[in-house]
TrEMBL record:
Ranges of residues in domain Solute-binding protein family 3/N-terminal: 21-251
Record organism: Streptomyces calvus
UniProt cross-references to Pfam families, sorted A to Z: SBP_bac_3
Example of a GO MF term: ectoine binding
Keyword Signal: yes
Protein name: Polar amino acid transport system substrate-binding protein
GO biological process: ectoine transmembrane transport
Keywords: Signal
Amino acid sequence: MPTASTADGGDLLDRLKAAGVVRLGIAGEIPFGYIDRNGELTGEAPELAKVIFKRLGVDRVQPVPTEFGSLIPGLNSQQFDVVAAGMYVNPERCEQVIFSDPDYQMLDSFIVRKGNPLGLRDYRDVVEKKAKFATGTGYAEIAYAVEAGYKESDILIVPDQVAGLNAVEAGRVDVFAGTALTTREVVKKSAKAEVTEPFKPIVDGKPHVDGGAFAFRPTETGLRDAFNVELHKLKESGELLRILKPFGFTEAEMTDLTAKELCGG
């Protein structure tokens, strides 16, 4: 039976303070949450978690690595206390967990040849210019291109952004679509390609922005609310950007989006 405190937002924060450690579910994804070459936990979400939980009176974080698809089941079966994996907030996930407000937003960008010879700025341009288009396996960008009118069978699917860069440099395609963050990082060493300005894809006829956040069990509203208070302080002071900057995040990824908006409520 739940105790009175559990029914009233949970007592997990008190238990974490007493234990002095919080267990973070991560999925081994750079730059979101991963174990580095020295065996240390890092990534934008764990580094942010370290700061926020310290402010909440919990000094240590402990990583619990798992597959991305196992993060929500693992959280709900108490294998860890919070998901710290830069997880996108969407209505389907909001039915299973509760989210903090997003600590970052993510727009799309294109990798194109230097000078952007076809003048490609968004998916409509790709369709109108009949550009040869590539994106990654399982990427959301496939649906964004199709919504703009690109034929799905004409899309070249490659494993990741490195393969996408190679395809653009070799002239096999005119453009590769990915997140603003991954495309920006991968073109840094390229002499032949550049990245376009970040933009919002159109989803269901409206400009769409994804946002990533921390996930908590639905009963733990007390911890989620306390986490949000500290997160908003970091946003207002500018410290959030300083924490995320080493992982490739810029002012363009800072956001005022709320979990409620992204959950569709």
